[in-house]
Description:
Layout: H1 7-18, H2 22-26, H3 30-49, H4 53-75
Helix pairs in contact: 1-4, 3-4
Keywords: Membrane, Transmembrane, Transmembrane helix
Transmembrane segments: 6-26, 33-60
Amino acid sequence: MSGQGSGGNVIAAVCNIFIVGLGQLVQGRFMAAILFFIVTYSLYALAATGAVLIVTWIFWPVAAIFHLWSIINAARYKGSD
């Protein structure tokens, strides 16, 4: 990847829209990909259980924030020079 704003970063950000962590994986950042994937989908799963209405209202926005963070993180990645 060239740097921030490059075509590769745009592709990585678009990949993250569909599968969280895929963009980081495309960029070759395996640990970041695993972290974003596990945290985000765990929070989505906790929100989806809906056993207690309060739980859904707490975990859903936090999961969405992590999802958005992963997209922005892939788009702004500068790489190692």
